[in-house]
Specification:
Elements: H1 8-18, E1 23-29, E2 32-37, H2 38-54, E3 62-66, H3 71-81, E4 86-90, H4 96-106, E5 110-113, H5 116-124, E6 134-137, E7 149-151, H6 152-156, H7 164-175, E8 182-187, E9 197-201, H8 202-215, E10 225-228, H9 235-247, E11 251-254, H10 261-268, E12 272-275, H11 277-293, H12 296-317, H13 325-346, E13 353-356, H14 363-371, E14 376-381, E15 388-391, E16 404-405, E17 410-413, E18 418-422, E19 429-430, H15 434-440, E20 447-455, E21 461-466, E22 471-472, E23 478-479, H16 481-489, E24 494-500, E25 507-513, H17 515-524, H18 532-537, H19 539-553, E26 562-568, H20 587-593, H21 595-600
Parallel strand pairs: 1-11, 3-4, 3-5, 5-6, 6-7, 10-11, 12-13, 13-14, 25-26
Antiparallel strand pairs: 1-2, 8-9, 9-19, 14-15, 15-16, 17-18, 18-20, 20-21, 22-23, 24-25
Length: 613
């Protein structure tokens, strides 16, 4: 075993000694930043373990966490693991029905919730979750008599110092954990049906942490600050912005919410941000919105700077050449004049890199971030692979790819282009589902990802689409929708896009509006409207979107072009059910929600781009 720890709690214990007085976590409370050292953080997890032990939690028991990403999640996570119990994460956006399924399927005996809104979900399904013996809540509120609550403060007995014998007893539990022991069951978001419980062991995560930093040549150090905002119920946020920094003594700064990320970046000045493409798309859009409002002189200066930055980056990473002295000087000048000020305004003066995963990142947006001095290292993996299988690094990087394989990870490409992997990070199987587990692996033990892709002669891997999401038109053409959707989202007027056309004669799209830009356009052209839904039907707006779609069509093969589209007034959201917690499209849900509008686009062979109103 190349990595030095037996388990994740063993890793935290070692970090608490090695980085004792360094800041482990930072968060905002009542407008002020609160810091906990590694020693304090570890001791608090032991207090959680002490409380859970008194409630009868033992090795192999299941404890669920139903919460947003916050420090309590991390404390509860390690508090459960210290005892050898299993952590059952539940997305805070899940419905009561989904919560009920996960609790019952996992047989969780305790549920730790963040606040009253999550507690009310449990109250609603109280009679359907007989395995639950106790609910613990982080925030204080008045519970219903039907479902009593223990507060997190009561559970930890924070005012009662840990006794030496209590520490020894819990650390004895930590010592008894084997690398092959299960530590969590993560339920997939269930975009294609009933969620499956992915069983992960300590070895899966520990090997991933070790080989990621080895590949990145010790990119992560004790001086790093991670801005953590992705849901810990998803493996990307939990492994790479929670466990990875703890392994290396880095500081985890918790964003207050997705809405406050911009503000928190300025406050915490992170060095590494693990993210999904949607956040990068939003930052990109925000930058161009600001440029749009600037004077003509500043606009021209910015666009010249971008052109130079892009030429500089493409010379190095696309042409694989050394930039000329003139280009070096020009790029440095624009960096001082434009990009350094932009990074300062964003709060990213110290940023070493964004790490992007969870979905494909538009190549032009990636190049843009590199051009302004904010590099993005794109990687790839799944919940079932803990998650990283391959990743780009500073010394081995190609735009459009998801990098090269981690050490000890093997790749096999099936005849239909499906990518199959084998390695120490691959899951043990699906919980209580031998049939699905057997289906997930081939005869040589390679995991079937369900993703279509290729590998070039230098070992770089490219993902073209999800096997299940490939559109096969009536003409027999196989089309990946994601690249087309990414091109559509490049428009300043389009916020989100869903492309459809399976078994149909041509492709159509459901488009959502970038409200700010569309309202600005409406004001400039003196359009009359009562509300946003009126704008979605306005002929001038339809004509505007038609031009944007036609611009995208020019970049596509004829069979890939969007023949018709419909504009919907509401953006796709997690709350609305159209997006997963990591902001990927739930295609089945979007189709069902807009089926009448989509089918209307196939009702005649006219050349219009939208349903008749």
């Amino acid at each position: 075993m190349e990595w030095q720890y037996k388990s994740l709690p063993d890793m935290l214990r070692a970090s608490s000694k090695k980085y004792k007085d360094r800041i482990a976590i930072s968060y905002k409370k009542n407008g002020k930043i609160v810091n906990l050292t590694y020693d304090e953080f570890y001791k608090l997890t032991l207090m959680v373990s002490r409380g859970l032990k008194k409630l009868g939690v033992k090795k192999g028991d299941k404890v669920a966490i139903l919460s947003e990403t916050r420090p309590m999640w991390s404390l509860a996570d390690f508090g459960i693991m210290n005892l050898g119990a299993w952590v059952i994460p539940i997305y805070h956006t899940n419905t009561p029905e989904q919560v009920s399924y996960i609790i019952n399927h996992s047989e969780a005996k305790i549920v730790i919730v963040s606040d009253r809104s999550q507690y009310l979900k449990l109250l609603e399904i109280k009679d359907e979750i007989p395995t639950v013996e106790m609910v613990v809540a982080h925030d204080r509120f008045l519970p219903d008599k039907k479902l009593p609550v223990l507060t997190f403060y009561q559970l930890t007995e924070m005012s009662v110092p840990l006794k030496d014998e209590e520490i020894k007893e819990i650390e004895k539990s930590i010592d008894s954990i084997d690398p092959e022991d299960t530590f969590t069951v993560i339920y997939t978001s269930g975009t294609t049906g009933v969620p499956k419980g992915v069983v992960l062991c300590h070895r899966n995560i520990l090997s991933n942490i070790y080989y990621i930093n080895k590949k990145a040549k010790d990119l992560v150090t004790e001086n790093d600050i991670f801005l953590s905002f992705l849901p810990y119920s998803h493996i990307l946020g939990r492994a790479d912005s929670h466990y990875l920094p703890i392994a290396h003594g880095s500081r985890i700064a918790y964003a207050e919410s997705i809405e406050k990320i911009a503000e928190n970046m300025v406050e915490f000045k992170p060095t590494i941000i693990v993210t999904v493409p949607r956040l990068l798309e939003k930052i990109h859009s925000r930058i161009f919105d600001a440029v749009h409002e600037a004077s003509d002189f500043k606009k021209n200066l910015f666009h010249k700077a971008i052109a130079t930055g892009k030429e500089y980056i493409e010379t190095i990473y696309v042409k694989r050449k050394k930039p000329s002295s003139a280009l070096n000087l020009k790029n440095k000048l624009f960096d001082n004049l434009v990009f350094s000020k932009l990074r300062e305004k964003l709060g990213l003066v110290n940023l070493k890199t964004f790490v992007s995963g969870g979905a494909p990142l538009n190549q032009d947006i990636n190049k843009f971030f590199w051009s302004i001095g904010l590099p993005v290292l794109e990687g790839y993996g799944l919940t079932e692979t803990s998650p990283v299988l391959c990743v780009n690094t500073f010394d081995k990087m190609k735009f459009g790819s998801v990098g090269t394989l981690l050490e000890k990870t093997e790749l096999k490409i099936a005849e239909d282009g499906e990518l199959l992997f084998r390695g120490p990070q691959v899951m043990k199987g699906y919980y209580k589902d031998e049939e699905k587990t057997k289906e997930a692996f081939d005869e040589e033990g390679f995991f079937k990802t369900g993703d279509i892709g290729k590998q070039d002669e230098e070992g770089f891997i490219y993902i073209t689409d999800r096997k299940k999401e490939l559109i096969v038109t009536a003409g027999g053409k196989n089309i990946a929708p994601a690249p087309i959707e990414n091109l559509l989202k490049n428009s300043k007027y389009i916020s989100n896009a869903f492309v459809y056309g399976d078994k149909k004669p041509y492709l159509v799209a459901v488009l959502t509006m970038n409200i700010e830009r569309v309202l600005e356009y409406a004001k400039q052209h003196k359009l009359k409207y009562f509300d946003i839904s009126d704008l979605a039907k306005n002929e001038k707006i339809i004509e505007l979107f038609k031009k944007e779609v036609e611009n995208v069509n020019k970049q596509l093969a004829r069979y890939e072009t969007i023949k018709k589209f419909v504009i919907v007034p509401q953006d796709f959201t997690i709350e609305g059910g159209e997006l997963t917690p990591t902001l990927k499209l739930k295609r089945r849900v979007i189709y069902q929600k807009y089926a009448d509008k989509i089918e209307c686009l196939y009702s005649d062979e006219g050349s219009c781009f939208t349903c008749s109103q």
